[in-house]
Design brief:
mainly alpha, 4 helices, extended
């Protein structure tokens, strides 16, 4: 007697896709030292409330906060940043 194979239904496939982790993307960027120092300040503030924080979490939280701004408020926040020269810094 042959064993029957259990097949997945359409509902099972949707559940499998939903359970799959999000695709991660690696990237690099340049920022002024003063802004980079803010990362340490914010990580320390996270520890004050017993919440260890990773740099990537801070960047993601910042993106989510910026996404909630109106276009005018976003433009104002971006205009407040000091310009950064594009590209990699020269090696010493």
């Amino acid at each position: 007697m042959a064993k029957s194979r259990k097949t997945r239904g359409a509902g099972d496939m949707d559940e499998a896709k939903a359970a799959a982790p999000a695709r991660l993307v690696r990237d690099s960027f340049t920022m002024p030292a003063e802004d980079f120092a803010l990362v340490d300040v914010l990580k320390a503030r996270g520890l004050q409330v017993q919440r260890p924080v990773k740099k990537s979490e801070l960047l993601r939280a910042g993106l989510h906060a910026l996404s909630g701004l109106s276009p005018q408020a976003l433009a104002k926040a971006l205009d407040a940043l000091a310009p950064v020269k594009a590209g990699r810094p020269k090696k010493k």
